[in-house]
Specification:
Layout lengths: L1 E3 L6 E11 L4 E6 L12 E6 L2 E13 L2 E6 L5 H5 L4 E6 L13 H4 L3 E4 L4 E10 L5 E6 L10 E4 L5 E5 L4 E4 L6
Parallel strand pairs: 8-13
Antiparallel strand pairs: 1-5, 2-3, 2-7, 3-6, 4-5, 4-7, 5-6, 8-9, 9-10, 10-11, 12-13
Main location: cytoplasm
Pfam families: PRC_RimM, RimM
Subunit structure: Binds ribosomal protein uS19.
Length: about 180
């Protein structure tokens, strides 16, 4: 593994190593990508060990049961694999595929302020999740200047999400504030 200076580049977390798998140094991987095996599209990962991003080469990766497992260069036994438990996996953001004009990565939406079409601030995007069947949902948490202290779950669909402005850090929605 080689040391990488994260401050020198923009990185995106794609998942984490959860634990060891077997005795030959394989690790279990939890992927945030969709589909989850897309994490293996990146032959080199940045792993965060003791606050330092280090580059590690993926020798092999494959589905295992309902999850994923990987063999990493330099990780050859169970103890070395266990030492990586709960370590984040990232790649340089520049390595991510370019999206169409109206598409966004979830990490880009987290933290954006969400406004109703009438200008009321509903809150800030805390997280997004897939509710099944390809339906994405924004979890919107209240802020000190939002209209109330409620948490909202708003579907991320074109009929409701009217505009995403990454430069302004906001999303405009047509969503009844009483929901």
């Amino acid at each position: 593994m080689s040391t990488q200076h994260a401050a020198e580049q923009d990185i995106t977390v794609l998942g984490k190593i959860t634990s060891a798998f077997g005795v030959k140094g394989w690790v279990k991987v939890y992927s945030f990508t969709d589909p989850m095996a897309s994490i293996f599209d990146y032959p080199n990962w940045l792993v965060n060990i003791d606050g330092q991003w280090r580059t590690v080469k993926v020798r092999e990766g494959k589905p295992q049961g309902k999850g994923l497992v990987a063999a990493l260069e330099g990780v050859n036994d169970r103890d070395a694999a266990l030492a990586l438990s709960q370590v984040e996996i990232a790649v340089p953001t520049a390595d991510l595929p370019e999206l169409e004009e109206d598409e966004h990565y979830w990490f880009q939406l987290q933290g954006l302020k969400v406004f109703h079409t009438d200008g009321q601030l509903l809150g800030q995007v805390k997280e997004l999740f897939d509710s099944g069947g390809g339906n994405q949902v924004m979890v919107i948490s209240s802020t000190t200047d939002s209209i109330d202290s409620r948490q909202r779950m708003v579907p991320f669909v074109g009929a409701i999400v009217l505009e995403v402005d990454l430069e302004q850090g906001q999303i405009q929605v047509d969503w009844d504030p009483d929901f």
